[in-house]
Amino acid sequence: MILGRSERGKPPVEPVTLKILVAGGFGVGKTTCVGAVSEIRPLRTEEVLTEAGRPVDDTRGVESKHTTTVAMDFGRITLREDLVLYLFGTPGQHRFWFLWDELASGALGAVVLVDTRRLEDCFAAVDYFERRSIPFVVAVNCFEGAARHPAEDVRQALDLDPDVPVVLCDARERESVKEVLVTVVRHAMTYAADRDRSVTT
Ligand SMILES: Nc1nc2c(ncn2[C@@H]2O[C@H](COP(=O)(O)OP(=O)(O)OP(=O)(O)O)[C@@H](O)[C@H]2O)c(=O)[nH]1
Ligand SMILES: [Mg+2]
């Protein structure tokens, strides 16, 4: 039987795909975060932390950590039928930072994950996105045993612009990470709209 035009369902929507980076210092939970939300088996590039790396790989606070990302994490999440995010987790250690420019190319926005016990580890990521005018949100990964700091204290300590969202999250929880991603997409959209307005006026 041939379906008439009015009987055909809605045409399938071609989703918009956006690239989001997940950045932050060493061992802050970037790989965990991408793995928690990805609907495909995330691509990981983990290598075992070795004895030789001990002087440079600071695992304080994440003593159970045995591997580290050496290139990137990759995952995908469908936020809405018409909106798909490609997630790129960056390597946390400074010796792999040469990869960041490649990963950042074409990114709509970024999540900077922070651990309040080692706040200084995220300074470089915050600087990186500020300098390149890539909109980002700061997501505090609330590890057990770490003191809870109000988001406003984190904002002050990082000297963030007032419009940069600061949210608390648990990198292991899908719903929590999803909320962070919704926040970054909203923020990046507002940022882009403001920028377009200032260009046309
Ligand atoms: N308790 C707790 N542990 C976490 C949380 N997020 C991550 N972890 C643990 O912290 C360690 C570091 O997590 P990763 O996801 O590998 O961190 P990363 O930022 O990708 O690390 P690098 O790629 O090496 O920079 C792992 O042992 C995780 O199981 C969290 O929210 N709470
Ligand atoms: Mg990692």
Automatic annotation (TrEMBL):
- Give yes or no: UniProt keyword Hydrolase: yes
Q: Could you cite one Gene Ontology molecular function of this protein? A: hydrolase activity
Keywords attached to this Swiss-Prot or TrEMBL record, sorted alphabetically, are: ATP-binding, GTP-binding, Hydrolase, Nucleotide-binding
Q: What is this protein called?
A: ATP-binding protein
What domain of life? Bacteria
Q: Which organism is it from?
A: Streptomyces poonensis
One Pfam assignment? ATP_bind_1
Q: Which SUPFAM superfamilies match?
A: P-loop containing nucleoside triphosphate hydrolases
**Sequence similarity:** Belongs to the GPN-loop GTPase family.
Q: By its UniProt entry, which InterPro entries does this protein fall under? A: Gliding_Motility_GTPase, Gpn, P-loop_NTPase
Q: CDD domains, per this entry?
A: Ras_like_GTPase (cd00882)
Q: Does the keyword GTP-binding apply?
A: yes
